[in-house]
Amino acid sequence: MSENTLYDKVWDQHKVATLPNGADQLFIGLHLIHEVTSPQAFAMLEQRDLEVAFPDRTIATSDHVVPTDPETRSRPFADEQAETMLSALEQNVEDAGIRFFGPGSGDQGITHVMAPELGLSQPGMTVVCGDSHTSTHGAFGAIGVGIGTSQIRDVFATGCIAAEKAAVRRVEVTGSLGAGVSAKDVILKIIGDLGVDGGVGHVYEYGGPAIRGLDMEGRLAVCNMSIEGGARAGYINPDETTYAYLRGREFAPDGQEWVQHRDYWESMRSEPDASYDDVVEVDADGLAPMVTWGINPGQVIEVTETIPRPEDLPENKRDTARKAYDHMEIEPGDTMTGYDIDVAFLGTCTNGRFTDFREAAQILDGEHVAEDVRALAVPGSERVKRKCEEAGIADVFRQAGFQWREPGCSMCLAMNDDQLYGDEVCASSSNRNFVGRQGSKEGRTVLMSPAMVAAAAVDGAVTDAREYNDEDGLDTATDESDPGVNA
Predict the structure, then answer these.
(1) In-domain check, residue 485
(2) Domain membership flag for residue 187
(3) pLDDT at 483 over 80
């Protein structure tokens, strides 16, 4: 059993009671909601004549079904179901007195992009949302978990959830990242090494020099995909990078409150002598950009490697590998380099932040998307979109032949018009490559970093983004820790 870790401390701070079934009742510091998973929970409250217990701790936005094409964004939406869901959310939050960041507010965006950039996510918090990628908020030293509709109802009614404590695995990432290698490559490497079910029953504490060297937006990307490794949550201990990012943001403390909060945040860090249920080491030295070759995020290799043969895999992974070869139309022993793509997609709660677009723009500057490639750039929030436009990054995307879209989840899960058609292949900065995830059962998804998406868009095929070495560099310098540039 782990002791003196941040996870243990946050759990103890928020534990209200032990329930008769042995689970713990945990108080929730921040509850994020959106238009897809909350309507049913609100209806359950109404049936029981209950009110939202802590509306000030609940924040709403719209992200999953909102159109990203500027021409179809006006209300009412052409998709009747999407309009119904958003209208229900708007009415529910108005009735409950919940703060809502809707389209056109200036702050609308994907839940896990919008909340961090507003300073809502803070160290030592418990954060929940009806979305599996709530693990993102662990980048701040919080414990973020996705919950189902019945638990959303429970948080509405009581401010608490019932949960069972997980084991803690320390993931020590040693070494440093080379040029052209990013946080997305780190988390894909971790998932590739530990497996998509390696984290079952655990939360991951990420640490080590490679993690400490990441900026906050890189840390958000790492924690975001914890769930893809089977972990219940993932977190990084707060440090000066965390505090620099939070300072001055709208919902972050200031003045004397800042001092008090920072003291608390520091106290929540894992102790130097903390014990873990497990410790694993992942070496980032010499790491190359990662690409998936299969139908889950654990089927991943460095772009310089060859696709594994069945006999080289554990026996329990061979059937899934054979399904992946068939679906992706690949051969073991081949390389993913040169694998033709039809669509390039940059965005999502994994890689829809300013630094992601800046990274891709460095590749795209002076280049153009290959003929017959459909390329979409979908900012993670209205603030990200505005910041990219002010920095000239949006112009680089447009000039390169990308469609510059409005914020939303978009092609990550294809709950709007942003979808694959037929057997199209998508170079995607998203988090999942499951069959049918992007709207077509025949569609094929290759996960990669923003820079790799940009390089694939230009070449029309998977390529090593490190080949695009722009010595002059694109002048898009903006400090991602400065909230002023997000205003």
Answers:
(1) no
(2) no
(3) no
- Predicted confidence (pLDDT) per residue in 103-160, tens digit: 999 999 999 999 999 999 999 999 999 999 999 999 999 999 999 999 999 999 999 9
CB 322: neighbour CB atoms within 10 A? Answer: 13
Residue-level pLDDT at 98: 98
pLDDT digits (tens, 9 = 90+) for 61-93: 999 999 999 999 999 999 999 999 999 999 999
Residue 122 lies in a domain: yes
> H/E/C letters for each residue in the chain?
CCECCHHHHHHHHHEEEECCCCCEEEECCEEEECCCCCHHHHHHHHHCCCCCCCHHHEEEECCCCCCCCHHHCCCCCCCHHHHHHHHHHHHHHHHHCCEEECCCCCCCECHHHHHHHCCCCCCCCEEEECCHHHHHHHHHCCEEEECCHHHHHHHHHHCEEEECCCEEEEEEEECCCCCCCCHHHHHHHHHHHHCCCCCCCEEEEEECHHHHCCCHHHHHHHHHHHHHHCCCEEEECCCHHHHHHHCCCCCCCCHHHHHHHHHHHHHCCCCCCCECCEEEEEECCCCCCEEECCCCCCCEEECCCECCCHHHCCHHHHHHHHHHHHHHCCCCCCECCCCECCEEEECHHHHCCHHHHHHHHHHHCCCCCCCCCEEEECCCEHHHHHHHHHCCHHHHHHHHCCEECCCCCHHHCCCCCCCCCCCCEEEECCCCCCCCCCCCCCCEEEECCHHHHHHHHHHCECCCHHHCCCCCCCCCCCCCCCHHHHC
**How far apart (Å, rounded) are the C-alpha atoms in residues 201 and 146?**
14
CATH number at residue 95: 3.30.499.10
What pTM was computed for the model?
A: 0.96
What is the distance between the alpha carbons of residues 461 and 343, in angstroms, rounded to a whole number?
10
Residues 150 and 298 in one domain: no
Domain boundary among the residues 163, 187, 203 is at 163
Given 163, 180, 202, the domain boundary residue is: 163
Single-letter amino acid code for the residue at 326: D
Same-domain status, 157 and 298 = no
How many structural domains are present in the chain? Answer: 2
Q: Are 335 and 305 in contact (CB under 8 A)?
A: yes
Q: Domain range holding 38?
A: 6-163
Judged by phi (left if over 0) then psi (alpha if -120 to 50, else beta), residue 414 lies in left
Q: For residue 177, is it within any domain?
A: no
Q: List pLDDT tens digits, range 387-418.
A: 999 999 999 999 999 999 999 999 999 998 99
